[in-house]
C-alpha cells in the first residue's frame, strides 16, 4: 500500500505542476470514462429493478 500511495503522491505532484489547460486535457478523459462506466452500470441496474418491481406488482408477468 505504501508503494501505491507514494506513486499516487508523485502523480498528484506532477499533475498539480501542470497548467490548467494541460491538467484538463489529462484529467477529462479519465473522468469521462469513469462517468460513462457508472452511467452504464446504473442504467442496467435500474432497468432490472424496474422490471422486477413491475413483475412483483403483477403488471408484467414476463421477466426479461
From TrEMBL:
Superkingdom field: Bacteria
Keywords: Membrane, Transmembrane, Transmembrane helix
Entry's transmembrane regions: 20-42
Listed name of the protein: TMhelix containing protein
Organism name: Mycolicibacterium komossense
Phylogenetic classification of the source organism: Bacteria, Bacillati, Actinomycetota, Actinomycetes, Mycobacteriales
Amino acid at each position: 500500500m505504501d508503494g501505491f500511495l507514494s506513486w499516487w503522491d508523485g502523480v498528484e505532484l506532477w499533475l498539480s505542476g501542470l497548467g490548467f489547460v494541460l491538467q484538463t486535457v489529462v484529467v477529462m478523459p479519465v473522468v469521462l470514462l469513469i462517468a460513462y462506466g457508472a452511467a452504464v452500470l446504473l442504467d442496467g441496474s435500474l432497468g432490472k429493478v424496474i422490471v422486477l418491481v413491475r413483475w412483483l406488482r403483477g403488471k408484467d408477468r414476463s421477466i426479461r
